[in-house]
Amino acid sequence: MSNFQVKIASKNYDAVIVGSGAGGGMAAYVLSKAGLKVCLLEAGPEFDPAKNSAQLKNPWDSPRRGASTKMRPFGDFDASYWGWEIDGEPYTQTPGSDKFEWWRARMVGGRTNHWGRISLRFGPRDFKRKSIDGLGDDWPIGYEDIKPYYDKIDKLIGVYGTNEGLANDPDGIFLPPPKPRLHELMFKKAATGINIPVIPSRLSILTKKINDDRGVCFYCGQCNRSCKVYGDFSSSSVLVRPALLTGNVDLITGAMAREVITDREGKAVGVSYVNKMDRQEYQINAKVVVLGASTCETARLLLNSKSSKHPNGLANSSGVVGHYLHDSTGAALGGVIPSLFGRKRYNEDGVGGMHVYTPWWLDNKKLNFPRGYHIEYWGGMSQPGYGFGMGQQGLNGKFQVNGRTKEAGGYGESLKEDVRFFYGASVGMGGRGEAVPRFENHCKIDPDVVDKYGIPVLKFDCKNSEYEVQQAKHMKETFREIMHEMGAVITWGDQDDASNKYGLSNPGNIIHEAGTVRMGSDKKTSALNAFGQAHDCKNLFCVDGSVFTSQADKNITWTILALSMRTSEYILDQLQKHNI
Amino acid sequence: MDRRKSIKAMLVGTVSATVLIEACKNTNTTVAEVNMDDRMQEEKDYLVKVNAAPTFFDAHEMATITVLGDIIMPKDAVSGSASDAKVPAFIEFIVKDMPDHQVPVRGGLRWLDLHCYKQHEKAFIECTKAQQLSIVDEIAYPNKAKPEVAQGVSFFNKMRDLVTTGFYTSEIGVKDLGYMGNVPNQWNGVPDDVLKHHGLAYTEKELKECISYS
Description:
- The complex is a heterodimer.
- Helices cover about 20% and strands about 20% of the residues of chain A.
- Chain A is built from ten helices and 17 strands.
- In chain A, the strands form three sheets. In chain A, strands 1, 2, 5, 6, 7, 8, 16 and 17 form an eight-stranded mixed β-sheet that branches. A six-stranded antiparallel β-sheet of chain A has the order 4-10-11-12-9-15, covered by helices on one side.
- In chain A, a hairpin with a 2-residue loop joins strand 16 (about 535) and strand 17 (about 535-540).
- The longest helix of chain B has 19 residues, at about 100-120.
- The chains are: A alpha/beta, B mainly alpha.
- Chains A and B meet through helix 2, helix 5 and helix 8 of A and helix 1, helix 3, helix 5, helix 8 and helix 9 of B.
């Protein structure tokens, strides 16, 4: 006798939110603090950095010494549950396109548990790219619309940095940054010597206490493991936890959203999901549906929510849902600094990220690519993990060790001497640039494949354009110059040319993908209005990277947070006015 | 105070960072069992599976790995040997965790024994130390090795990699390296003597704007 049914929750919520990352977490925070009854659906399990972080573990506390696994691709201590692959949840590629690498972290707080903490405001130019270079589209909002929210986010969440008065890297409300490390001082000296600026980075890490709920950074350099004292931003600790404490939020973990349910008039009614524990079907009904499942999952949800009023997928009369998919560009190289060989030991951990960086400094009108990039730096005496010390034969024959020429390779006491000698002398740099969003780059529903829950999966079709390739070429040329100026010897990332797109990363690989449910003022070419509200369904909102009309040479999390706060306040306003 | 209590205190903010840093220096706690609160269920299940799988290397292979390991990372004035650092057990685990290592290591071990047998009519571990080192010298230097032993060079590169990484991620190895992090502290910049040595200094702007701990 079949027991199959969809159990509809008896409680009618004011809002149901899909996803507890930056966007979903912020929506839960704002709406619950305003007294709304919220149901927050999260596909992953519970995660609280205070309890579940691997912070301060030693390399030998992991049987694989911190190596990467399928379930934790950035290392055994990284605060990520899953990543590029999830068992039973495939995605597919279109033959002939670039391979789209899709990152999916399934946990309360999502990517904000293991992200790089880089918190950069978009600048005024970043909202008006079409007006500047004729490519892509302008946002339906400008910096003035979002500035008040950046200000609120800076104060609510905390970010360190300095006000530099840069036109397109706006000033903010900053906590003091940490002093640069030794290799960062060297990068700074070399780069500024060839007119490339190096300024304090802007990371969401608390160098000073901002409230009684969170501790202060103690410089263990392990932000990617998430912070047990909530010294950096994770949605799990900073947004979801206080939201739960209001008593207005029901958090349902292990809930894989299947479809947004709409009524005969096309209005959103709720979200159906499968409970991963009992594998039964459920539905949450609410006045407002907010999607923060991440860029591609939100698009997937909409495309899988077809009805007679929304034959092309929910909120998709324009046909843009899934399209304009774009990621940050990435290219990197690195090497060693001989003056750092045999260096004096001291605790150099600092924060879990760079203390300095380079904001975009050139005029694209004088270059053969339209958009800019920023530069990130790394190096130093970091905690050893699996892979440490491998490849000695590539170093110990190239450089004298303690004044002695050695034959490459070797073993024994001499090898131990080599490992100690070269420790802490490696450096690297990577560019993170703005790609031009194009309609042709998209994800869509694969007509042939479902995941283990029976939800149709995504099929990707993205290709980097010549703009991105030329940008990567410029990155490599710039990095070579800086390394040379530093007296560094490049040991990797220097063997690129046009045939491998100058080492340009695959789309998705940088994990800043955006654009699939973009906002715009024209209903024919956008899915959402300036408040993240669906043109076709006024009680449906999106609050993650899907809403971005373009990306900027800046990581998108801070803007996701600001836009989600703005959208959430708009939801409150519209509910109060009985408009939705 | 132990790590977990100190973290809780830092969260609540009842203890200042300076007090904690002193307290952490004096901790003598040893964690008998590694805390698994950071693992998701699938990872716990996977680890049970890997540990329950039959031992991969037989006694002879493991003995060879142990001898090779101690040649690659012997005891010296600074620290113990690969055996002291339990590198052979690490290698046994890692080939089960990363099966791609299995064929090159198993095949390389057999290559080594056969190569050794051709010269001394004995397996590697049965040779004298001098004989063992002489064989190792044939394959330890990629730029000098004869083409006929190219596979041996590849094998030794892999063993050197696994032993070095297994050693320097062990407690003995991390101490040998002199890594001083992974402990709560207040980052106050590069030490003065190091700055001086490199001819570098913080600018007035940096000294004014960056957080300082006196």
